[in-house]
Amino acid sequence: MAVVLVSGGLDSMISAASAKAAGYRILALSVDYNQRHKVELAAARRVAVALGAERHIVLPLDLSAFGGSALTADIDVPKDGVQPGIPVTYVPARNTIFLSLALGWAEAAGARDLFIGVNALDYSGYPDCRPEFVAAFEGLAEIATKAGVEGQPFKIHAPLQHMTKADIVREGTRLGVDMGLSWSCYDPAPGGLHCGRCDSCRLRSKGFEEAGIPDPTAYAVKPQG
User: Where is the binding site, in residues?
Assistant: First the structure.
């Protein structure tokens, strides 16, 4: 059994599918952090059902109270292409917070495996997507929990860590998942469309194009670069 972080995005969907393919029973965890693209939670519910999660918790935790990100505050989402550096769509300590919640559920449920869909190649430059972060959190889990200090350590799985977005799309195809169920856009357009201009839309489109696999996503405008 594994606790799997399911945001509704493409990467978390393929991470969850990897857990299922490896034989894990899935406990799916999504966080309603009052994100601008809250529509992704509907996608998370679709994904959890499609992958046969034994339980799916959507946990309310309003990070807009802190702000500091274009996803949680009144800050424009950048739409000029992926730029160097850490963008304003970075949510302060988001993956640390989310993995802490997943760790708490895992310990309570008797699970010792956690899955997260972070990626350190085709991504937006977030510090909490790097291998060093995943390794550090795994070490933290061992000393911060009753299970860990009693010799039952936790394993943080990041199956997409070293994949390009094209690799991720190919993996989704190999696993037979309907990638059209997922949602990536940071700033949804009217009519339930991906905007086609934010970093996340551009990276998603680029992945399908480079993989040579038809993109099932409906965009308001065709992503460029």
Answer: 6-16, 185, 195, 198, 201
